């Protein structure tokens, strides 16, 4: 039976375990991982709860998907309203206690509780990349934009991840060849190269290496062509480069000089176990620093890969 | 959670990718070799080869020539005799990491005399450790400790194209080994797992162990115990001499 305590679900535990392992491997990132551990664990736990909660699902229309229209494009998000409120109630106090300057999250929570803050509309603005609306809202509450964006990403991420899980089977039968998420149209936060395939030949195991993109907001993953930039579809090898540490070639920066974007990629064929896709980006922040030092911008901007 | 290799020799085609990957990852020196009429090259494990695919050819009872391949390496014993013996001579020369189960030879092995190193070598029922005669350093497979503790697969496992080399949680590898054994036994009724309870490198063999390698499985316990007994006998004397300066 599914527990209703977000911090005790299997996904929440998996985030915590992954953070503990990652801290041992990358002690330099320990402080960062510790700060985000609880919020990300609760976010994962909420997704676990939401995936088992029946709501009216949006239509998955192959004709719209074929034209690049994500499922939640133009959706009023009314179906997600209860989840968004629950996520806000659970996550904002955790965010407040996880960061030294967490007062901003308290202000956001107060605004949500009093109904002044139309959460659903702000999440819509986040999905639409409407930074003007976000800025105005932040100003109205008296917090910096970054705090509001982080809060909205966490809240929306938890709710849409639950929805994405409910849509997964239906979406699996559709074709989606774009570099943004078929559920929420957000940019990918991480890409992976798949494990070796079972080729059904007794003495041969091979293949794998297929590129999958993982949504930076809801975590949905989908196949994407390996030889192109997810940001601009540029497939010219002369304007794309791969950067990695010599002894860690399985963790790499894939950068595109055409759109000036980059996306981190991990090769699962090198890993003993699949990394936790919610926690792992925090173990790769050194690559973000390197990429941004070279003038590239992340395809998916979030709190831990935005450096001033 | 301790880790283990599962080495399914029934799938091995002797491509030697594992041998090469090991050498490359550890940046081990090259060997001077010559044609000796066998593909087994170099002829034996040495300080520059922690992994060696052994070739063995023999004719079975019904006149069929069997060519067996054995990707030899340290078994990372659950209770490693090499460590027990080394501890009596110089603590810290050989360590066992409880988390992964890796048995690790440290730089301290350089401080072992040639005779002591030989005692350590002889304590291994699988004839694995080797000593660099110039530096005194003893070495062998490290379970790619730095890779494994970073969440990666050992180099030999990563590169294996046939599914011979497998690595993971010990329980999972034992389960896989038993599942694969049941499958292989349909074709090779005498198939067996080599010392699965005592080692962290579990070999699946389709033929008698001696048809792979002299040390494919541990010898009967008596010789090993005797070696350990003899090594233990010297321990108090060594300590006394050490204290006398």
From TrEMBL, chain A:
SUPFAM superfamilies recorded: FdhE-like
Coiled coil residues, start to end: none
Signal sequence range: none
GO cellular component entries: cytosol
Protein name per its UniProtKB record: Formate dehydrogenase accessory protein FdhE
GO molecular function: ferric iron binding
Taxonomic classification: Bacteria, Pseudomonadati, Thermodesulfobacteriota, Desulfovibrionia, Desulfovibrionales
Stored InterPro entries: FdhE-like_sf (IPR024064), Formate_DH_accessory (IPR006452)
Alphabetical GO biological process terms: protein maturation
Automatic annotation (TrEMBL), chain B:
Pfam families for this protein: Fer4_11
Entry coiled-coil feature ranges: none
GO terms, biological process: cellular respiration; formate oxidation
Compartments in which it is found: Cell envelope
PROSITE patterns the record matches: 4FE4S_FER_2 (PS51379)
Keywords, in A-Z order: 4Fe-4S, Iron, Iron-sulfur, Metal-binding, Repeat
GO cellular component terms listed in the entry, alphabetical order: cell envelope
A GO molecular-function annotation: metal ion binding
Name of this chain's protein: Formate dehydrogenase
Main location: other
Residues covered by the 4Fe-4S ferredoxin-type domain: 3-33
Species in which this protein is naturally found: Oceanidesulfovibrio indonesiensis
């Amino acid at each position: 039976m599914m527990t209703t305590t977000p911090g005790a679900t299997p996904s929440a535990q998996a985030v915590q375990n992954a953070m503990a392992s990652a801290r041992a491997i990358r002690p330099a990132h320990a402080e960062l991982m510790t700060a985000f551990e609880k919020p990300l664990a609760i976010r994962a736990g909420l997704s676990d709860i939401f995936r088992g909660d029946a709501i009216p699902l949006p239509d998955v229309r192959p004709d719209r998907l074929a034209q690049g229209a994500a499922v939640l494009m133009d959706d009023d998000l009314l179906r997600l309203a209860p989840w968004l409120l629950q996520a806000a109630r659970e996550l904002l106090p955790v965010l407040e206690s996880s960061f030294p300057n967490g007062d901003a999250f308290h202000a956001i929570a107060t605004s949500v509780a009093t109904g002044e803050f139309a959460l659903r509309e702000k999440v819509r603005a986040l999905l639409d990349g409407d930074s003007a609306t976000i800025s105005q809202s932040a100003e109205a509450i008296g917090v910096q934009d970054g705090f509001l964006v982080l809060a909205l990403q966490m809240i929306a991420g938890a709710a849409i991840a639950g929805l994405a899980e409910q849509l997964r089977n239906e979406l699996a039968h559709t074709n989606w060849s774009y570099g943004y998420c078929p559920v929420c149209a957000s940019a990918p936060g991480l890409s992976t190269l798949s494990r070796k395939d079972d080729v059904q030949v007794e003495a041969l195991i091979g293949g794998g290496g297929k590129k999958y993109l993982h949504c930076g907001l809801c975590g949905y993953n989908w196949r994407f062509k390996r030889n192109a930039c997810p940001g601009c579809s540029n497939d010219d090898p002369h304007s794309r480069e791969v950067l990695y540490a010599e002894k860690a070639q399985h963790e790499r920066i894939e950068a595109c000089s055409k759109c000036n974007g980059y996306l981190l990629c991990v090769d699962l064929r090198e890993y003993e176990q699949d990394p936790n896709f919610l926690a792992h980006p925090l173990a790769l922040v050194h690559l973000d620093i390197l990429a941004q030092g070279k003038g590239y911008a992340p395809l998916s901007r979030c709190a831990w890969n935005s450096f001033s | 959670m301790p880790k283990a290799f599962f080495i399914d020799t029934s799938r091995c085609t002797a491509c030697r990718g594992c041998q090469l990957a090991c050498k490359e990852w550890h940046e081990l020196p090259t060997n001077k070799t010559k044609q000796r009429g066998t593909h087994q090259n170099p002829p034996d494990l040495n300080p520059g080869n922690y992994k060696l695919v052994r070739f063995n050819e023999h004719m079975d009872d019904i006149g069929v020539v069997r060519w067996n391949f054995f990707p030899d390496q340290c078994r990372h014993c659950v209770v490693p005799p090499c460590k027990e013996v080394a501890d009596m001579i110089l603590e810290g020369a050989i360590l066992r990491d409880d988390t992964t189960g890796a048995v690790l030879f440290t730089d301290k092995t350089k401080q072992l005399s040639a005779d002591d190193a030989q005692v350590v070598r002889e304590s291994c029922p699988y004839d694995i450790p080797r000593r660099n005669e110039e530096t005194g350093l003893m070495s062998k497979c490290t379970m790619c400790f730095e890779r494994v503790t970073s969440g990666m697969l050992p180099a030999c496992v990563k590169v294996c194209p046939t599914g011979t080399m497998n690595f993971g949680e010990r329980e999972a590898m034992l389960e896989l080994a038993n599942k694969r054994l049941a499958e292989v036994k349909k074709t090779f009724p005498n198939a067996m797992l080599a010392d699965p309870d005592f080692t962290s490198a579990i070999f699946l063999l389709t033929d008698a162990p001696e048809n792979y390698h002299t040390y494919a499985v541990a010898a009967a316990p008596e010789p090993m115990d005797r070696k350990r007994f003899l090594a233990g006998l010297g321990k108090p004397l060594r300590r006394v001499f050490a204290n006398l300066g």
